[in-house]
Amino acid sequence: MFPKKVYYGLRYVLALSVLAEDEHIRVAEVAEREKLPVKFLETIAVALRKNGVVNVKRGAGGGYYLAKPLSEITLYDLISVLDDKSDKPIPLTGSNAEKAVGKYLNEVKKEYELLLNDCKLDKLKSMLDQEGEQIMYYI
Fold first, then answer.
1. Which element (helix H / strand E) includes 63?
2. What are the backbone angles phi and psi of residue 41, rounded to the nearest 5°?
3. 4-134: what fold?
4. Which of 44, 65, 121, 139 could connect to 73 by a Cys-Cys bridge, CB 3.0–4.6 Å?
5. How do residues 52-80 score in pLDDT, each as one tens digit?
6. Looking at the predicted structure, is the pLDDT value of residue 22 above 70?
7. Residues 103-118: tens digit of each pLDDT
8. Beta bridge partner(s), residue 54
9. What ranges do the domains of the chain cover?
């Protein structure tokens, strides 16, 4: 249902979310840690920067960091930036059946967008934290 670009974008944002307040990280470092393709992740980082999800510190020792808290970033924010098909218009022309289907799909799309806007990424961070707590070490 979600393209890889969105999946990788979520993993990238999640990797940035664990940084301390004044920290930043290069795309290549995240790509290595997450085992993601560097070039693909670079295009994701640039798109997210252009849309205000992440910021960049330029120069030697620079890197990316979140532009705002995860509680202010929604799944819709990422999908609208990273999935170029998400904003494709649904036609409302043609036969009566085509018009009805178009209207129906537009209603579903609006509901879907509302749902995605309610999905804040701080919940994703909570899930990561829970996964970390579930790891048990036995001696």
1. strand 63-66
2. -65, -35
3. Arc Repressor Mutant, subunit A (1.10.10)
4. 121
5. 999 999 988 889 999 999 999 999 999 99
6. yes
7. 999 999 999 999 999 9
8. 66
9. 4-134
Burial class of residue 96, CB neighbours in 10 A (0-12, 13-18, 19+): exposed
Check pLDDT > 80 for residue 2: yes
Whole-number Å distance between alpha carbons of 56 and 67:
9
Angle 52-121-21 from CA coordinates, rounded to 5°: 65
CA–CA distance, 23 with 36 (Å, rounded to integer) = 21
Give the integer Cα–Cα distance in Å for 59 and 95: 57
Q: Six-digit token pair at 24?
A: 């930043």
Give how far the C-alpha of residue 27 lies from the chain's centroid of Cα atoms, to the nearest Å.
15
Q: Minimal CA–CA distance to 124: which of 38, 66, 57, 85?
A: 66
When pLDDT is averaged across residues 32-58 and rounded to a whole number, the result is 96
